[in-house]
Amino acid sequence: MDHMIFEVGTALMLVAFASIIASRLKFSIIPFLIILGMLVGPHAPTVGIFDFKFIESQEIIGFLGRIGVLFLLFYIGLEFSVSKLIKSGRNIVFGGTIYVVLNFVIGLAYGFLVDFPLYETLIIAGMISVSSTAIVAKVLVDLRRTGNSETELILGMILFDDLFLAVFLSVMSGLLLGGATSVGGILLSVGISMGYMLLFFIIARKGTPILNKLLNITSNEIFIIVVFSTLFFISGFSEKLHVAEAIGALLFGLALSETEHSKRIEHLVIPFRDFFGAVFFFSFGLSIDPLTLGDAAWIALGAVLLTVVGNIVSGMIAGRKAGLSHKASTNIGLTVMARGEFTIIVANLGIAAGLMPLLKPFSALYVLVLAIVGPLLAKESKYVYGGLNKIFKWSKPKEKAKV
């Protein structure tokens, strides 16, 4: 216990080092931090005064990681708004629906194919259905595609995917954490989760004037204390109702997204999101024994291949329905392919509910591969499109100069 602060400090220095390397390589920090966490931990050596096992501090590092999840979901809630979805138009709703339904069905089919039980199959389907908002946003910025014709649809589909995530986690929280066994009990648990979620949607639409008055605080110090205290209280209260704490954070962010203070909150929360979010990915890796990864290798790789196919197909359908070119439509599927923070959150829900231990190494490998392969495929999208075009003969000569 005497060395806990030093252990935590050592862990944070490793996180900082991995983040710097990822930044120099202009790549997502997520796979770097997960791999780093896997390389240290209980199986790691002790070198002089540096104990890389992190046995004493693992609990506190895990708690800091949980805080990271809350800030990640809270920030997504702030970015998302009910009015945005209403105004987003038919193309985004259609594209998002195609994306979620196709990937979810693929996940269900795959879960049953590999003979997983029902709840594990549902978790696998959820993991396969949710893209990484953080990685997608970084890819769009790094590849300078924010002005591309397909970018609005990509962001809309991600927004729709985030909404699906909120509904999915609420429903699965009711099923897995509600402790219900009968059909009536299950319906009650799910009903409580959905009702709780609906309450925040109503607050977001109707309670904005009241929230504006309550948050009309001049001092940034007091303002951030009030917002963050409420965030942790609502997240903890959500758990009491058997709704995942992360969803409580997302719903609170959603409630504040329509207020006149939303941009101020975003500005204040970003450093906390980035810092604690990085600890979350490191702590997730820390909980994985690399020796167990082999057990999930073939299952994870199968899921990766299906995800690649599912994303390209759904991106093509969504893009073509919106009147975009085949090249732009290919970009959609490749850009939203990366998996990261939300896939891990879905996996953690299953792990917390005591489902198959195989979920942990499966989710680690699945996220690692797609967090690396997704951005690489997006970067080389012209070659992917070129290969597909040779098969399907899509393009006309005038399209060749456009990517």
Concise description?
The chain is mainly α and 403 residues long.
Key words describing this protein structure:
76% helix, globular, 403 residues, 18 helices, 2 strands, mainly alpha
Polypeptide structure, described:
The protein is mainly α and 403 residues long. Helices cover 76% and strands 1% of the residues. The chain is built from 18 helices and two strands. It has a two-stranded antiparallel sheet. A hairpin with a 2-residue loop joins strand 1 and strand 2. Helix 1 crosses helix 2, helix 5 packs antiparallel against helix 6 and helix 14 runs antiparallel to helix 15. The protein is globular and about 65 Å long. 45% of the residues are buried. The model has no long low-confidence stretch (mean pLDDT 84).
Q: Largest beta sheet, briefly?
A: 2 strands, antiparallel
Cross-sheet strand order for the largest sheet: 1-2
Beta-strand percent range = under 5%
What's the shape? globular
Q: Structural class of the secondary elements?
A: mainly alpha
Tally of helical segments: 18
Beta-strand segment tally: 2
Quaternary class: single chain
Radius of gyration from the alpha-carbon trace, in angstroms: 21 Å
Alpha-carbon distance between the two ends = 56 Å
Order of SSEs: HHEEHHHHHHHHHHHHHHHH
Lay out the secondary structure.
Layout: H1 4-24, H2 29-39, E1 46-47, E2 50-51, H3 58-79, H4 82-87, H5 90-113, H6 118-129, H7 133-142, H8 151-177, H9 183-206, H10 208-214, H11 220-240, H12 245-257, H13 262-286, H14 293-321, H15 326-335, H16 341-352, H17 359-379, H18 381-392
Helix pairs in contact: 1-2, 2-13, 2-17, 3-12, 3-13, 5-6, 5-8, 5-14, 6-8, 6-16, 7-8, 8-9, 8-16, 9-12, 11-12, 14-15, 14-17, 15-18, 16-17
